Amino acid sequence: MLRLLTLLTAIISFATFSAPKSELWQYWDASNEASLQTIDHQSWQAFLDKYVVVEGEHHLVNYKGISSEDKRELERYVRTLSSLDPRNYSRAEQYAYWVNLYNAITVDLILDSYPVKSITKLGGLFSFGPWGDEVTRINGKALTLNDIEHRILRPIWDEPRTHYAVNCASLGCPNLQTNAFTAKNTQALLEQAAKEFIISSKGVSFNQGKLTLSEIYDWFAVDFGTQEQLFEHLAQYRTEVKGYRGKVSYEYDWSLNETK
Description:
- The protein is α+β, with helices and mostly antiparallel strands.
- Helix content is 41%, strand content 12%.
- It has one domain.
- It is built from nine helices and seven strands, in the order ααββααββααββαααβ.
- A hairpin with a 2-residue loop joins β3 (134-138) and β4.
- The longest helix has 23 residues, at 91-113.
- The chain is globular.
- Residues 1-16 have low confidence and may be disordered.
- This is DUF547 domain-containing protein.
- GO terms for molecular function: electron transfer activity.
- Keywords: Signal.
């Protein structure tokens, strides 16, 4: 009976999964463009340097090898970011702040439940992953990963390449970048992340002339515009997409992005 319930729960979760809409949380839509303050992401960079391994088209995380000390340092980094008021910083500093916070929290959530086969196994019994769970508090306000991505990053910056920046700890997801985002490197990293994903088979794949795209382009179609606009975006890195008129299918691999 328990196994049947678990199976039915998984089926319901997958069947009802849909990407949240981009809806602005007005409170966070403020910045101080006169500020010259910067936010230190060195501890996150040190973590990435130590535990992210590039294997082919994937950036994998050595979850099993992460020491207790480095786990605590990761938690300290998240607490430090959460103690700041991002509205006191420039938009450029804010963007790097939110992306790094999202990615660091995601890794920390995996570590809290490791070993686990997929991030979709996290969360409550009837949840598909942890995205709707409270993960931090900033300025006394509870935030979820969905809040960070869909109520802050997407609506404030209106930047479709954000989907290549935030990482959901899955093989089908755009890679967790080996460099922490900063105000200075954001544009270069977004461009690098977009190119990496689109030239990879998990982003865009042709098989006997048929086009398969990541589910990201279906879930967040509104961010990429019309199909013609999406293909123009993809064709910047995969010229064979240009002029494609056939059927499009979508795939996504939720397996954990871990080293073996």
